[in-house]
Amino acid sequence: MTELQAVILGILQGAGEFLPISSSAHLALAPRLFGWEYQGLAYDVMLHLGTLLAVLIYFAKDWLKIFRDAFTTPRAPGGNLLWLLALASVPAAIAGLALNDYAETVFRDPLWIAFNLVFFSAVIYAADRAPAQRLDEEAFTWRHALLVGLAQCVALMPGASRSGMTIMAALFIGYRRSAAARLSFLLSTPVILGAGLLEARKITPDQLNAAFAWGLAASFLSGLAFIWLLLAWVKRRTLAPFLVYRVLLGTAIALLFWN
After folding, report:
1. How many domains does the chain have?
2. Cα separation of 183 and 148, whole Å?
3. CA-to-CA distance for 199 and 96, rounded, in angstroms?
4. Secondary structure of the chain: what % helix, strand, coil (to 5)?
5. Domain coverage including residue 99
6. What are the backbone angles phi and psi of residue 129, rounded to the nearest 5°?
């Protein structure tokens, strides 16, 4: 893999991790479309570490407050957010371990990805139009954590989108778009960290090269940019443009790989 290819994959990772367009779908499809050698799921997951660093830095003050409140004022509104985020991560951890083989094989079929892109666009659209979206992060409960965590399991299928599924679940529950996006980003931290630690053992020494470093840097920088973009966007606008892109991409992939 060349440095340019790694940078492109890193940018796709940074965009797809935080926009509801599915990073795993883009990372799985790009090598097929451009004729590149596919580096494997472990390499894709390791690129996620760039976006992990992005979300840690972007929300550094939030994470410090979350940890402080968890131990000093756990019964205050928002004081139990750390434990709720941990609870919401449990379903994805179990599903990831149970379905890892499918994630590397069956789920990465282009037609399956195309179906997920289109189908879940309709689901996210319905959530985006749901009424009574007034809750913020302090309203997060253990029931909400489990529901969002279960929705996150669906993101094991490329094309569903981790951010898309978690934002969708939060919107259906009644959270404001900006609060749903923030919860999604905070929840990405333990999930990306866990997946990275699980897949790190599969990375070979020859993959830890200059191209990989460029890919990590690209995913980190683009991750910062797209976190800012989506948070700014959802304050005043719907998710419709991202859903249109998903449908167009899914349709194009289906037509391209039908035979």
Report:
1. 1
2. 9
3. 11
4. 80, 0, 20
5. 3-257
6. -95, 0
pLDDT digits (tens, 9 = 90+) for 49-104: 899 999 999 999 999 999 999 888 877 767 899 999 999 999 988 988 887 776 66
| Side-chain-side CA neighbours of residue 242 (13 Å) | 29
CB atoms under 10 Å from CB of 42, counted, come to 18
Query: Rounded mean pLDDT of 176-180?
Result: 94
Neighbouring-strand partners of residue 175:
135
- Token output for 75: 């019964």
The answer for residues whose C-beta is within 8 angstroms of residue 175's C-beta and 6 or more apart is 133, 135, 136, 139, 183
Q: If residue 66 lies in a helix (H) or strand (E), which one and from where to where?
A: helix 60-72
Cβ–Cβ < 8 Å for 231, 59: no
Closest CA to 215 of 60, 23, 22, 21: 23
What is the amino acid identity at position 183?
L
Tokens of 95: 């599903």
Length of the chain: 259
